[in-house]
Fold this protein.
Amino acid sequence: MIQDLTCSKKELVKYFLDREMLIDSDILSRIKVAESCDELDEIKKELLIGAGASVKGPETGGSVEIISCYDKEPHKREVQHFVGYFNARYNALKAMLMRRQEMQGLTSISRVISRKEKDNVSIIGLVLEKNETPNGHIMLTLEDPTGKVKVLINKNRNDLLALGRDIVLDETIGIVGVNGDNIVFANSLLFPDIPMTKELRKSPEEEYAVFIGDFHFGNNEFLKDDFLKFVSWLKGDTGTESQRDIASKVKYIFLVGDLVEGVGIYPGQEKDLEIDDIYQQYEALTEYIAMIPTHMKIIICPGNHDAMRIAEPQPVLYKDFAESIWKLPNVVLVSNPAMVNVGKKEGFPGFDVLLYHGFSFPFYADVVKGIREKGGQDRSDLIMKFLLQRRHLAPMHTSTLYLPDAEKDYLVIDKVPDFFITGHIHRAAIANYRNITMINCSTWIPTSDYQIKLGIKAQPSKVPVVNLRTREARIMNFGEKET
Ligand SMILES: [Fe+2]
Protein backbone atom coordinates (compact mmCIF):
# COMPACT_ATOMS: atom_id res chain seq x y z
CA MET A 1 0.00 0.00 0.00
CA ILE A 2 1.48 3.36 -0.99
CA GLN A 3 -0.03 6.21 0.91
CA ASP A 4 2.75 8.74 0.88
CA LEU A 5 2.34 11.26 -1.91
CA THR A 6 6.04 12.12 -2.13
CA CYS A 7 6.98 8.48 -2.20
CA SER A 8 4.61 7.65 -5.06
CA LYS A 9 5.75 10.67 -7.08
CA LYS A 10 9.39 9.77 -6.55
CA GLU A 11 8.68 6.29 -7.73
CA LEU A 12 6.93 7.61 -10.83
CA VAL A 13 9.77 9.98 -11.69
CA LYS A 14 12.30 7.17 -11.26
CA TYR A 15 10.18 4.83 -13.35
CA PHE A 16 10.19 7.24 -16.27
CA LEU A 17 13.81 8.33 -15.82
CA ASP A 18 14.79 4.69 -16.15
CA ARG A 19 13.11 4.88 -19.54
CA GLU A 20 14.89 8.10 -20.51
CA MET A 21 11.73 10.16 -20.11
CA LEU A 22 11.01 13.25 -18.08
CA ILE A 23 7.63 14.15 -16.67
CA ASP A 24 6.69 17.82 -16.85
CA SER A 25 6.55 19.42 -13.41
CA ASP A 26 3.03 20.70 -14.03
CA ILE A 27 1.70 17.22 -14.72
CA LEU A 28 3.54 15.92 -11.69
CA SER A 29 1.81 18.48 -9.51
CA ARG A 30 -1.55 17.25 -10.76
CA ILE A 31 -0.93 13.57 -10.10
CA LYS A 32 -3.27 12.20 -7.51
CA VAL A 33 -2.09 10.08 -4.61
CA ALA A 34 -1.91 6.43 -5.52
CA GLU A 35 -3.64 4.39 -2.91
CA SER A 36 -2.45 0.98 -4.00
CA CYS A 37 0.27 -0.64 -6.06
CA ASP A 38 -2.33 -1.41 -8.70
CA GLU A 39 -3.30 2.21 -8.89
CA LEU A 40 0.33 3.29 -9.15
CA ASP A 41 0.76 0.87 -12.04
CA GLU A 42 -2.31 2.36 -13.66
CA ILE A 43 -0.87 5.86 -13.35
CA LYS A 44 2.41 4.69 -14.89
CA LYS A 45 0.55 3.10 -17.77
CA GLU A 46 -1.63 6.15 -18.27
CA LEU A 47 1.39 8.42 -18.33
CA LEU A 48 3.35 6.11 -20.56
CA ILE A 49 0.67 5.83 -23.21
CA GLY A 50 -1.60 8.72 -22.51
CA ALA A 51 0.04 11.83 -21.23
CA GLY A 52 0.50 13.52 -24.57
CA ALA A 53 3.04 16.31 -24.48
CA SER A 54 3.59 15.88 -20.80
CA VAL A 55 5.90 12.89 -21.24
CA LYS A 56 8.94 13.85 -23.22
CA GLY A 57 11.44 11.63 -24.94
CA PRO A 58 14.92 12.72 -25.97
CA GLU A 59 14.60 15.34 -28.71
CA THR A 60 16.33 14.42 -31.96
CA GLY A 61 15.21 17.33 -34.09
CA GLY A 62 13.02 15.28 -36.41
CA SER A 63 10.56 17.63 -38.08
CA VAL A 64 7.09 16.76 -39.36
CA GLU A 65 4.95 19.33 -41.15
CA ILE A 66 1.49 18.51 -42.46
CA ILE A 67 1.14 19.63 -46.07
CA SER A 68 -2.36 18.33 -46.74
CA CYS A 69 -4.81 16.58 -44.48
CA TYR A 70 -8.55 16.26 -45.09
CA ASP A 71 -10.46 17.92 -42.28
CA LYS A 72 -13.87 18.82 -43.67
CA GLU A 73 -16.99 18.39 -41.61
CA PRO A 74 -19.39 15.71 -42.91
CA HIS A 75 -22.25 17.10 -45.01
CA LYS A 76 -24.90 15.81 -47.35
CA ARG A 77 -23.88 15.17 -50.95
CA GLU A 78 -26.14 15.72 -53.94
CA VAL A 79 -25.82 15.25 -57.69
CA GLN A 80 -24.17 18.65 -58.22
CA HIS A 81 -21.35 17.62 -55.87
CA PHE A 82 -20.44 14.81 -58.29
CA VAL A 83 -20.55 17.26 -61.23
CA GLY A 84 -18.37 19.73 -59.36
CA TYR A 85 -16.03 16.95 -58.25
CA PHE A 86 -15.38 15.70 -61.77
CA ASN A 87 -14.99 19.27 -63.05
CA ALA A 88 -12.47 19.97 -60.26
CA ARG A 89 -10.59 16.80 -61.11
CA TYR A 90 -10.61 17.57 -64.85
CA ASN A 91 -9.34 21.10 -64.30
CA ALA A 92 -6.55 19.97 -61.95
CA LEU A 93 -5.31 17.26 -64.33
CA LYS A 94 -5.78 19.48 -67.40
CA ALA A 95 -3.54 22.11 -65.79
CA MET A 96 -0.81 19.45 -65.41
CA LEU A 97 -1.18 18.27 -69.01
CA MET A 98 -1.14 21.83 -70.36
CA ARG A 99 2.40 22.24 -69.07
CA ARG A 100 3.52 19.66 -71.60
CA GLN A 101 5.09 21.02 -74.77
CA GLU A 102 3.02 18.63 -76.89
CA MET A 103 -0.14 20.36 -75.67
CA GLN A 104 0.86 23.78 -76.98
CA GLY A 105 -1.90 23.90 -79.59
CA LEU A 106 -4.63 22.72 -77.20
CA THR A 107 -8.15 22.94 -78.60
CA SER A 108 -11.47 22.34 -76.91
CA ILE A 109 -13.37 19.31 -78.19
CA SER A 110 -16.25 21.41 -79.62
CA ARG A 111 -13.74 23.34 -81.74
CA VAL A 112 -12.03 20.18 -82.90
CA ILE A 113 -15.36 18.91 -84.22
CA SER A 114 -15.76 22.08 -86.30
CA ARG A 115 -12.18 21.97 -87.61
CA LYS A 116 -11.20 20.75 -91.07
CA GLU A 117 -10.22 17.16 -91.64
CA LYS A 118 -6.49 16.36 -91.53
CA ASP A 119 -5.76 19.30 -89.24
CA ASN A 120 -3.33 18.51 -86.42
CA VAL A 121 -5.12 18.81 -83.07
CA SER A 122 -4.37 18.51 -79.34
CA ILE A 123 -7.15 17.74 -76.90
CA ILE A 124 -7.50 16.94 -73.21
CA GLY A 125 -10.47 14.89 -72.12
CA LEU A 126 -11.87 12.49 -69.61
CA VAL A 127 -12.27 8.94 -70.95
CA LEU A 128 -16.00 8.29 -71.25
CA GLU A 129 -15.86 5.02 -73.22
CA LYS A 130 -13.22 2.57 -74.33
CA ASN A 131 -13.68 -0.32 -76.76
CA GLU A 132 -11.59 -2.55 -78.95
CA THR A 133 -12.88 -2.57 -82.55
CA PRO A 134 -13.33 -5.87 -84.47
CA ASN A 135 -10.11 -4.97 -86.33
CA GLY A 136 -8.12 -4.63 -83.11
CA HIS A 137 -7.95 -0.83 -82.93
CA ILE A 138 -8.76 0.94 -79.66
CA MET A 139 -11.63 3.38 -79.82
CA LEU A 140 -12.05 5.95 -77.04
CA THR A 141 -14.67 8.58 -76.44
CA LEU A 142 -13.14 11.63 -74.79
CA GLU A 143 -15.22 14.29 -73.10
CA ASP A 144 -14.40 17.80 -71.96
CA PRO A 145 -16.80 20.52 -70.72
CA THR A 146 -17.54 21.48 -74.36
CA GLY A 147 -18.35 18.12 -75.95
CA LYS A 148 -17.34 14.58 -76.88
CA VAL A 149 -15.25 13.10 -79.65
CA LYS A 150 -14.07 9.65 -80.71
CA VAL A 151 -10.34 8.94 -80.66
CA LEU A 152 -8.84 6.01 -82.55
CA ILE A 153 -5.57 4.35 -81.52
CA ASN A 154 -4.44 2.35 -84.51
CA LYS A 155 -3.48 -1.27 -83.85
CA ASN A 156 -0.33 -0.77 -85.98
CA ARG A 157 0.94 1.92 -83.60
CA ASN A 158 2.79 -0.45 -81.29
CA ASP A 159 4.13 2.47 -79.28
CA LEU A 160 0.58 3.54 -78.39
CA LEU A 161 -1.30 0.27 -78.28
CA ALA A 162 -0.04 -1.02 -74.90
CA LEU A 163 -0.60 2.41 -73.35
CA GLY A 164 -4.07 2.52 -74.90
CA ARG A 165 -5.02 -0.92 -73.60
CA ASP A 166 -4.15 0.13 -70.04
CA ILE A 167 -6.31 3.27 -70.16
CA VAL A 168 -9.18 3.13 -67.67
CA LEU A 169 -12.50 4.92 -67.81
CA ASP A 170 -12.72 8.37 -66.19
CA GLU A 171 -9.00 9.06 -66.35
CA THR A 172 -7.91 12.34 -67.94
CA ILE A 173 -5.51 12.11 -70.87
CA GLY A 174 -4.09 14.27 -73.62
CA ILE A 175 -4.21 13.28 -77.27
CA VAL A 176 -2.21 14.77 -80.12
CA GLY A 177 -3.49 13.59 -83.45
CA VAL A 178 -5.03 14.26 -86.83
CA ASN A 179 -8.60 15.36 -87.18
CA GLY A 180 -11.04 13.21 -89.18
CA ASP A 181 -14.78 13.31 -89.59
CA ASN A 182 -15.91 13.43 -85.93
CA ILE A 183 -12.87 11.37 -84.97
CA VAL A 184 -9.27 12.07 -83.97
CA PHE A 185 -6.54 9.66 -85.09
CA ALA A 186 -4.06 9.55 -82.21
CA ASN A 187 -0.36 10.13 -82.83
CA SER A 188 0.59 10.70 -79.19
CA LEU A 189 -1.03 9.83 -75.90
CA LEU A 190 -0.10 11.78 -72.78
CA PHE A 191 -0.74 11.24 -69.10
CA PRO A 192 -0.50 14.03 -66.50
CA ASP A 193 2.53 12.06 -65.17
CA ILE A 194 5.52 13.06 -63.07
CA PRO A 195 7.93 15.56 -64.67
CA MET A 196 11.17 13.98 -65.90
CA THR A 197 12.99 16.76 -64.10
CA LYS A 198 11.90 15.69 -60.61
CA GLU A 199 15.02 15.93 -58.45
CA LEU A 200 16.21 13.18 -56.09
CA ARG A 201 16.32 14.97 -52.76
CA LYS A 202 18.84 13.78 -50.18
CA SER A 203 19.07 14.86 -46.58
CA PRO A 204 22.32 16.52 -45.51
CA GLU A 205 22.21 14.32 -42.37
CA GLU A 206 22.21 10.57 -42.00
CA GLU A 207 18.76 9.78 -40.71
CA TYR A 208 16.34 6.98 -41.43
CA ALA A 209 12.66 6.50 -42.13
CA VAL A 210 10.83 3.24 -41.46
CA PHE A 211 7.57 2.11 -43.04
CA ILE A 212 4.97 -0.16 -41.47
CA GLY A 213 1.23 -0.73 -41.70
CA ASP A 214 -1.72 -3.11 -41.58
CA PHE A 215 -1.46 -4.20 -37.95
CA HIS A 216 -5.03 -5.54 -38.01
CA PHE A 217 -4.79 -5.51 -34.23
CA GLY A 218 -7.47 -7.59 -32.57
CA ASN A 219 -7.01 -10.37 -35.13
CA ASN A 220 -6.16 -13.58 -33.32
CA GLU A 221 -3.10 -14.10 -35.53
CA PHE A 222 -1.33 -10.82 -34.75
CA LEU A 223 2.38 -11.61 -34.97
CA LYS A 224 3.25 -10.30 -31.54
CA ASP A 225 6.72 -11.84 -31.34
CA ASP A 226 7.71 -10.41 -34.73
CA PHE A 227 6.53 -6.97 -33.71
CA LEU A 228 8.41 -7.18 -30.40
CA LYS A 229 11.54 -8.09 -32.37
CA PHE A 230 10.99 -4.96 -34.46
CA VAL A 231 10.66 -2.83 -31.32
CA SER A 232 13.71 -4.44 -29.82
CA TRP A 233 15.68 -3.47 -32.95
CA LEU A 234 14.35 0.11 -32.81
CA LYS A 235 15.53 0.34 -29.21
CA GLY A 236 18.99 -0.83 -30.22
CA ASP A 237 18.72 -4.02 -28.19
CA THR A 238 19.09 -6.47 -31.08
CA GLY A 239 20.68 -6.69 -34.51
CA THR A 240 24.16 -6.48 -35.91
CA GLU A 241 26.32 -3.46 -35.18
CA SER A 242 25.32 -1.78 -38.43
CA GLN A 243 21.64 -2.60 -37.86
CA ARG A 244 21.82 -1.07 -34.40
CA ASP A 245 23.55 1.97 -35.87
CA ILE A 246 20.62 2.36 -38.29
CA ALA A 247 18.12 2.00 -35.44
CA SER A 248 19.86 4.78 -33.53
CA LYS A 249 19.27 7.11 -36.49
CA VAL A 250 15.60 6.31 -37.15
CA LYS A 251 13.63 9.52 -36.87
CA TYR A 252 10.41 8.81 -38.72
CA ILE A 253 8.03 5.87 -38.75
CA PHE A 254 5.13 5.87 -41.19
CA LEU A 255 2.09 3.72 -40.45
CA VAL A 256 -0.33 3.52 -43.37
CA GLY A 257 -3.61 2.35 -41.96
CA ASP A 258 -5.59 -0.69 -40.88
CA LEU A 259 -4.31 -0.25 -37.35
CA VAL A 260 -7.01 -2.53 -36.06
CA GLU A 261 -8.86 -5.50 -37.50
CA GLY A 262 -12.17 -3.78 -36.81
CA VAL A 263 -15.47 -5.43 -36.05
CA GLY A 264 -18.09 -6.50 -38.58
CA ILE A 265 -15.82 -5.84 -41.57
CA TYR A 266 -16.69 -9.09 -43.35
CA PRO A 267 -19.10 -12.00 -42.74
CA GLY A 268 -17.82 -14.46 -40.15
CA GLN A 269 -15.06 -12.10 -38.97
CA GLU A 270 -15.85 -12.85 -35.33
CA LYS A 271 -14.06 -16.20 -35.56
CA ASP A 272 -10.84 -14.34 -36.51
CA LEU A 273 -11.00 -11.93 -33.57
CA GLU A 274 -9.07 -12.13 -30.35
CA ILE A 275 -10.53 -8.78 -29.26
CA ASP A 276 -14.10 -8.20 -30.41
CA ASP A 277 -14.50 -4.67 -29.08
CA ILE A 278 -13.28 -1.84 -31.30
CA TYR A 279 -12.36 0.42 -28.37
CA GLN A 280 -10.32 -2.34 -26.77
CA GLN A 281 -8.61 -3.07 -30.10
CA TYR A 282 -7.28 0.50 -30.22
CA GLU A 283 -6.38 0.54 -26.54
CA ALA A 284 -4.46 -2.72 -26.71
CA LEU A 285 -2.68 -1.66 -29.91
CA THR A 286 -1.60 1.59 -28.25
CA GLU A 287 0.40 -0.37 -25.72
CA TYR A 288 2.45 -1.81 -28.58
CA ILE A 289 2.90 1.49 -30.41
CA ALA A 290 3.92 3.08 -27.10
CA MET A 291 6.87 0.67 -26.99
CA ILE A 292 8.45 2.54 -29.90
CA PRO A 293 11.05 5.01 -28.55
CA THR A 294 9.37 8.37 -28.12
CA HIS A 295 12.02 10.33 -29.98
CA MET A 296 10.83 8.65 -33.20
CA LYS A 297 7.97 10.53 -34.84
CA ILE A 298 5.15 8.22 -35.93
CA ILE A 299 2.93 9.48 -38.75
CA ILE A 300 -0.35 7.54 -38.97
CA CYS A 301 -3.15 7.53 -41.55
CA PRO A 302 -6.25 5.31 -41.36
CA GLY A 303 -7.29 2.41 -43.59
CA ASN A 304 -10.47 0.60 -44.51
CA HIS A 305 -10.44 -1.59 -41.36
CA ASP A 306 -10.25 1.40 -39.04
CA ALA A 307 -13.29 2.65 -37.15
CA MET A 308 -14.61 5.23 -39.55
CA ARG A 309 -16.23 5.65 -42.94
CA ILE A 310 -14.59 3.66 -45.70
CA ALA A 311 -15.16 6.40 -48.31
CA GLU A 312 -12.06 8.40 -49.22
CA PRO A 313 -10.73 10.79 -48.21
CA GLN A 314 -10.90 9.31 -44.73
CA PRO A 315 -10.37 11.84 -41.94
CA VAL A 316 -7.85 11.31 -39.15
CA LEU A 317 -8.63 8.51 -36.70
CA TYR A 318 -11.63 9.48 -34.58
CA LYS A 319 -10.72 10.46 -31.05
CA ASP A 320 -13.83 8.67 -29.73
CA PHE A 321 -12.44 5.32 -30.83
CA ALA A 322 -8.70 5.85 -30.75
CA GLU A 323 -8.24 8.25 -27.85
CA SER A 324 -5.23 6.38 -26.49
CA ILE A 325 -3.42 6.80 -29.83
CA TRP A 326 -4.33 10.50 -29.95
CA LYS A 327 -2.54 10.95 -26.65
CA LEU A 328 0.75 9.37 -27.62
CA PRO A 329 3.41 12.09 -27.47
CA ASN A 330 5.23 11.23 -30.67
CA VAL A 331 2.29 10.51 -32.98
CA VAL A 332 1.09 12.70 -35.83
CA LEU A 333 -2.35 11.70 -37.11
CA VAL A 334 -3.30 12.50 -40.70
CA SER A 335 -6.09 11.65 -43.14
CA ASN A 336 -6.05 9.04 -45.88
CA PRO A 337 -4.70 10.27 -48.25
CA ALA A 338 -2.45 12.96 -46.83
CA MET A 339 0.89 14.59 -47.47
CA VAL A 340 3.48 15.48 -44.87
CA ASN A 341 6.94 16.97 -45.07
CA VAL A 342 9.65 15.43 -42.90
CA GLY A 343 13.31 16.17 -42.34
CA LYS A 344 13.23 19.87 -43.17
CA LYS A 345 16.28 21.70 -41.87
CA GLU A 346 18.23 24.82 -42.62
CA GLY A 347 19.10 24.82 -46.31
CA PHE A 348 17.14 21.65 -46.99
CA PRO A 349 13.43 21.61 -47.89
CA GLY A 350 12.75 18.14 -46.46
CA PHE A 351 10.87 15.28 -48.09
CA ASP A 352 7.25 15.41 -49.19
CA VAL A 353 5.64 12.09 -48.32
CA LEU A 354 2.29 11.03 -49.80
CA LEU A 355 0.48 8.51 -47.62
CA TYR A 356 -2.38 6.47 -49.07
CA HIS A 357 -3.69 3.27 -47.54
CA GLY A 358 -4.21 1.69 -50.98
CA PHE A 359 -7.82 0.53 -51.06
CA SER A 360 -7.95 1.02 -54.85
CA PHE A 361 -4.94 -1.25 -55.49
CA PRO A 362 -6.67 -4.63 -56.00
CA PHE A 363 -8.97 -3.02 -58.58
CA TYR A 364 -6.08 -1.86 -60.78
CA ALA A 365 -4.20 -5.11 -60.24
CA ASP A 366 -7.18 -6.88 -61.83
CA VAL A 367 -8.44 -4.39 -64.42
CA VAL A 368 -5.23 -3.08 -66.01
CA LYS A 369 -3.84 -5.66 -68.40
CA GLY A 370 -0.26 -4.40 -68.14
CA ILE A 371 -0.38 -4.95 -64.35
CA ARG A 372 -2.51 -8.10 -64.27
CA GLU A 373 -0.30 -9.98 -66.74
CA LYS A 374 2.87 -9.05 -64.84
CA GLY A 375 1.70 -10.31 -61.45
CA GLY A 376 -1.27 -8.20 -60.35
CA GLN A 377 -1.18 -7.61 -56.60
CA ASP A 378 2.37 -8.98 -56.45
CA ARG A 379 3.43 -5.88 -58.38
CA SER A 380 2.57 -2.95 -56.17
CA ASP A 381 5.36 -1.09 -57.97
CA LEU A 382 3.40 -1.23 -61.23
CA ILE A 383 0.18 -0.15 -59.51
CA MET A 384 1.92 2.80 -57.87
CA LYS A 385 3.60 3.83 -61.12
CA PHE A 386 0.23 3.59 -62.89
CA LEU A 387 -1.36 5.94 -60.35
CA LEU A 388 1.54 8.39 -60.37
CA GLN A 389 1.30 8.59 -64.16
CA ARG A 390 -2.43 9.36 -63.82
CA ARG A 391 -1.69 11.74 -60.92
CA HIS A 392 -4.72 10.23 -59.21
CA LEU A 393 -5.09 7.61 -56.47
CA ALA A 394 -8.25 6.06 -57.90
CA PRO A 395 -8.91 7.42 -61.39
CA MET A 396 -11.78 5.08 -62.32
CA HIS A 397 -15.14 5.79 -60.69
CA THR A 398 -15.71 2.30 -59.24
CA SER A 399 -12.18 1.63 -58.01
CA THR A 400 -12.75 3.00 -54.53
CA LEU A 401 -15.55 4.52 -52.50
CA TYR A 402 -15.24 8.27 -52.30
CA LEU A 403 -16.99 11.36 -51.04
CA PRO A 404 -17.20 13.98 -53.78
CA ASP A 405 -16.26 17.50 -52.76
CA ALA A 406 -17.36 19.99 -55.37
CA GLU A 407 -14.39 22.33 -54.97
CA LYS A 408 -11.53 19.81 -54.96
CA ASP A 409 -10.76 16.18 -55.71
CA TYR A 410 -8.59 15.13 -52.77
CA LEU A 411 -7.47 11.97 -54.58
CA VAL A 412 -5.63 14.01 -57.25
CA ILE A 413 -1.87 13.87 -56.67
CA ASP A 414 -1.44 17.60 -57.10
CA LYS A 415 1.98 17.96 -55.47
CA VAL A 416 4.76 15.68 -56.70
CA PRO A 417 5.98 13.73 -53.66
CA ASP A 418 9.46 12.43 -52.83
CA PHE A 419 7.95 9.32 -51.25
CA PHE A 420 4.70 7.54 -52.12
CA ILE A 421 3.76 5.21 -49.25
CA THR A 422 0.94 2.67 -49.35
CA GLY A 423 -0.19 -0.61 -47.79
CA HIS A 424 -3.44 -2.62 -47.90
CA ILE A 425 -2.17 -5.51 -50.03
CA HIS A 426 0.21 -6.65 -47.27
CA ARG A 427 3.31 -6.93 -49.43
CA ALA A 428 6.62 -5.20 -48.77
CA ALA A 429 8.06 -3.56 -51.85
CA ILE A 430 10.35 -0.67 -52.73
CA ALA A 431 10.76 0.82 -56.20
CA ASN A 432 11.60 4.09 -57.87
CA TYR A 433 9.71 6.07 -60.46
CA ARG A 434 11.22 9.33 -61.68
CA ASN A 435 13.02 9.90 -58.37
CA ILE A 436 9.95 9.12 -56.28
CA THR A 437 10.60 6.30 -53.82
CA MET A 438 7.51 4.08 -53.91
CA ILE A 439 7.03 1.89 -50.86
CA ASN A 440 4.29 -0.59 -50.12
CA CYS A 441 4.22 -1.64 -46.49
CA SER A 442 3.78 -5.15 -45.24
CA THR A 443 1.61 -6.37 -42.36
CA TRP A 444 1.78 -7.98 -38.92
CA ILE A 445 -0.68 -10.79 -39.58
CA PRO A 446 -0.26 -13.85 -41.83
CA THR A 447 -2.60 -14.40 -44.78
CA SER A 448 -6.07 -15.22 -43.48
CA ASP A 449 -8.72 -17.30 -45.26
CA TYR A 450 -10.64 -14.11 -45.90
CA GLN A 451 -7.58 -12.47 -47.47
CA ILE A 452 -6.95 -15.48 -49.71
CA LYS A 453 -10.38 -14.82 -51.21
CA LEU A 454 -9.27 -11.24 -51.91
CA GLY A 455 -6.13 -12.46 -53.68
CA ILE A 456 -3.81 -11.21 -50.94
CA LYS A 457 -0.55 -13.10 -50.47
CA ALA A 458 0.90 -11.47 -47.37
CA GLN A 459 4.59 -10.94 -46.67
CA PRO A 460 4.26 -10.22 -42.95
CA SER A 461 6.81 -8.68 -40.61
CA LYS A 462 8.94 -7.10 -43.33
CA VAL A 463 9.92 -3.50 -42.84
CA PRO A 464 11.19 -1.13 -45.55
CA VAL A 465 13.87 1.21 -44.21
CA VAL A 466 15.31 4.18 -46.09
CA ASN A 467 18.52 6.10 -45.46
CA LEU A 468 17.42 9.68 -46.11
CA ARG A 469 20.97 10.87 -46.76
CA THR A 470 21.65 8.41 -49.59
CA ARG A 471 18.03 7.37 -50.41
CA GLU A 472 19.24 3.77 -50.23
CA ALA A 473 16.45 1.44 -49.20
CA ARG A 474 16.31 -2.05 -47.75
CA ILE A 475 13.70 -4.44 -46.38
CA MET A 476 14.36 -5.86 -42.92
CA ASN A 477 12.71 -9.14 -42.02
CA PHE A 478 11.44 -9.57 -38.45
CA GLY A 479 9.55 -12.77 -39.26
CA GLU A 480 10.50 -16.36 -38.76
CA LYS A 481 10.22 -17.28 -42.40
CA GLU A 482 11.61 -15.95 -45.64
CA THR A 483 8.65 -15.23 -47.90
FE1 LIG B 1 -6.67 -2.40 -45.92
